[in-house]
Amino acid sequence: MENLILIDRVLPSKDWATILFFLGFSVIAVNRTVFGVRFSEFTRLAVSNKYLKIYKDNTNLRNSFTLSFLIVQLISITFFVQIALKSFDLIPYYSFSSFLMILNFVGTFIIGKYLIDKIISSTFNIDEFSDALNLQKATYRNYIGMILLAVDVLLFYNNITNKLIIGTLLIALIATNILLYVLFIKNNQKAIMNKGFYFILYLCTLEIAPYLLLYFWFKDYGAL
Fold first, then answer.
1. In this predicted model, what pLDDT tens digit does every residue of 140-154 receive, in sequence order?
2. Which candidate, 78, 1, 68, places its Cα nearest to that of 32?
3. What is the pLDDT of residues 10-33, one digit of tens each?
4. 133 Cβ partners below 8 Å, 6+ apart?
5. How many whole angstroms separate alpha carbon 188 and alpha carbon 131?
6. What is the DSSP letter of 208?
């Protein structure tokens, strides 16, 4: 008779993820309740730019509605990066510690990029362009973050780590970000023409170079 060897299989708890997902959806629910009309227009961004026309003042970049959705964006992006890293076998399993490390990286990247943005835009005297671009990016990325949060829930709890699915979603996110710049340039052609050289320099320095550095960093990291 063969001897049976029993091996304990310890499954990492996902309670921490449930709490974070609950926090993200709670922020959305509160904004829907407190900012009913604004939230309604916000959810129609995919089919209408009315929201951007109504809330085009640059002060909207720092109001409670936009900043609270930044929490949702950070949670959803961090979860998606974690899912992508697991899909490409760069981390063995989901854990709160890996989530915190990714969150710290994403948060530092966003805040650092914003601070450098303010320095560069002031140097080139294109603060108005910079604020308008940041407002548009923040608005659409908050919208994408809200949708991505639901996608993360589906991927996370069903343990979907198919490289084709994750890769397709990643390409879609990159394409959406490129589209944001195209829309901004299209909607501000006359103003950009007056300071074309500085605006192109601004885009290359702040909007292209950081992502190229990230690409090569992840490429080298994946090769280790």
1. 999 999 999 999 999
2. 68
3. 556 788 999 999 999 999 999 999
4. 184
5. 13
6. I
